[in-house]
Amino acid sequence: MERMTTKRARPLSPNIQIYRPQLTSVLSIANRITGVALSVFAVVLVIWLAAAASGPAAYSQLQTIIGSWPGQILFLIATFAFFLHLCGGIRHLVWDSVRAFELKQIYASGWAVVLLSAALTVISWLLNLLIAGHS
Amino acid sequence: MRRFRIQTPLGRAVGLGSAKSGFGHWWTERITAAALVLPAIWFAASLIAHSGSDYDTFRRWLREPINTALMVLLLVTLFWHAALGLQVVIEDYVHSVAKIWALIVMRFACFALAAVGIIAALRIALGA
């Protein structure tokens, strides 16, 4: 009778861990991971607005948290996630219009997304230091 | 033998297609993505310019009508797009009853966060 009630472990089809990571698959999952991460950061945006609406004390308290080391590291991750999801999302929209869907173009746009996201992250942080750092 | 169909492809898709509400979801995800590009770039540029600002500078900035409007639009589009994207993630990795609960909680959270964010932005913009 036991055999009927216990679940046998069913064989699984080859899963993602046995495949060598490729740019295409890594960017695909990265778009999903950054999407989830940005949803979490969207909560921070709402907390930030709510703090600002409740008064200067709560606002400056939040500014201190964001300005701390862990806060800055999280913000750096958020910046890269933001640009990766933005550039990757535009790449998806181009694909959806049935363009640039040859393998060569897919790899070219993939590397473009990676490099552009990294460049935009560095540029925006440098600009921020230049503008906000001096005030 | 080639079977003759009197029904148009569209009629067949609407009546019998397996997609059901899937196409609407897919399409809205794309539309909200495209709609997010401009507010997202505005938001990033604003953060770069104002992240070190004090409270009064920040308030003055958000009180400008264009910034208030873009912030509200950003919140609406962002949480709409997030709800659609998170739905796919939940449907892929969470199963059975937990899936239904996760979907309900996620949707409520997106609505609530959007509401709180918009009210906060409007309070700063319109408040005394």
TrEMBL record, chain B:
Membrane topology: Multi-pass membrane protein
Protein keywords: Electron transport, Heme, Iron, Membrane, Metal-binding, Transmembrane, Transmembrane helix, Transport, Tricarboxylic acid cycle
Leader sequence residues: none
Compartment annotation: Membrane
Predominant place of localization: membrane
Transmembrane segments: 31-49, 70-90, 102-126
Cofactors demanded by this protein: heme
Subunit details: Part of an enzyme complex containing four subunits: a flavoprotein, an iron-sulfur protein, plus two membrane-anchoring proteins, SdhC and SdhD.
Biological role stated in the UniProt entry: Membrane-anchoring subunit of succinate dehydrogenase (SDH).
Protein name: Succinate dehydrogenase hydrophobic membrane anchor subunit
Lineage per the UniProt record: Bacteria, Pseudomonadati, Pseudomonadota, Alphaproteobacteria, Hyphomicrobiales
